Amino acid sequence: MKHPSLRKVNSLNVYAIVDILNVDPNYQLLIAELNSAHGGRNLILPGVHFSLLMDLESAASTPAYTAGFLMNVMTNLSNIDFNLYSGSQAQRKLIFAIRDTYAISGMLVDSSHCLGITTIEDSDLTNELYHKIRLLCNKETLLIRKTTIPEMIHRFEYEQTLISQKQYCLIGHLTEHFLPEDLYTELLDEYCLNSNDLQKEDVKKLNHLTQRILETTPIHLIIYASVLKDFTVTGELDFFGVRISLTISQRLRCLKNLEQLVNKLDLMHVCVLPEGILSDHQHIAHPTLFVSDSLCYLRLKKLTPEYNICIPNKIILDHIFEEFFDDVWDSNIDKNSHNTVVAMIQHAIHAIEIMLEVN
């Protein structure tokens, strides 16, 4: 991707077939650019279009690793137009075709070696390969469907996740689910001023439904340790897919409500994840994952709300995320989990109270 000819173009269109889950982890990092902070975390690149076809079913890694890796890839590449596909055609292949520019291909012998590498710099031959790969990246092979929260609400998918029997959540950043009613209404007024996608009364009803679900449904909640620290300092909240910065007093109200939920709801089981899922990817913003028996979806922490929701388009991926959550939960839950979470929340509340005094 650092080929000199790419410096001459204003936009970039890439189709790739890579058996990425069956190569050495070091090469996985290089291919997906997970070995750096991706230089442009604060840079949106709408002119970069990258579609990757991989083979999910033959993955040699465990479901926990596969899910963690895919979440990190989607998060790290969320500042470009990135699409993910799955098909058996990707087995033992490593092919990149950049439209009008060049292509490179190789046949994998094992996880660390290729039989040979071929580079094509003729634009006609490159485009022929580019369009052949493009035909493989279609609706049938689409692995992740990108959408928005308003679209999920219009399709009743948001409600569907709330009323499902199995309720698992991996919290990478705070969302509208944990707000007190008065603060929710304040933020809703601000949200509706800048968006015509949703009716205010309909969204209000969602808050009432959420609160009742929290009170009556068993929920397993895993919170990254970094979530409360980040929220305390930045006040950044994912409100229906839009990043809103809360004032210090609003942060205090939000955290006190979260403390109340954790202490009073007997059906809410909570544990803390001290580090990231994969230790090699610590610099990547943690996504939020909702898992249920009817619909799973990811919320990416993007600078823009457009298509920051990723819904698995294959049943096999739903199962991988379920196994992933079970594995993470079993590895981190202990008898002191509740006390650890409460202590973290109380520490964050104390820090915000100090910030209020200083201001």
The SS-based structural class is alpha/beta
Helix content: 40-55%
Portion of residues in beta strands equals: 15-25%
How are strands sequenced across the largest beta sheet?
Answer: 7-15-14-13-8-9-12
For the record, the count of structural domains works out to: 2
> What separation lies between the terminal Cα atoms?
47 Å
How many DSSP-defined strands?
A: 15
What gross morphology would you assign? globular
Q: How much is the average pLDDT?
A: 87
> What is the CATH topology assignment of the largest domain?
Endonuclease, Chain A
| Rg, nearest Å | 22 Å
CATH architecture of the largest domain: 2-Layer Sandwich
The sequence of SSEs as H and E is: EHEHEEEEHEHHEHHEHEEHEEEEHH
Q: What is the CATH level 1 assignment of the largest domain?
A: Alpha Beta
Helical run tally: 11
Could you please describe the fold and organization of this structure?
- The protein is of the alpha/beta class and 359 residues long.
- The protein folds into two domains: 139 residues, Endonuclease, Chain A (2-Layer Sandwich), CATH 3.30.870; 212 residues, Endonuclease, Chain A.
- Helices cover 40% and strands 23% of the residues.
- It contains eleven helices and 15 strands.
- The strands form three sheets. It has a seven-stranded mixed β-sheet with strand order 7-15-14-13-8-9-12.
- A hairpin with a 5-residue loop joins β5 and β6.
- It is globular, with a radius of gyration of 22 Å.
- The protein starts with 11 loop residues before the first strand and ends with a helix.
- The model has no long low-confidence stretch (mean pLDDT 87).
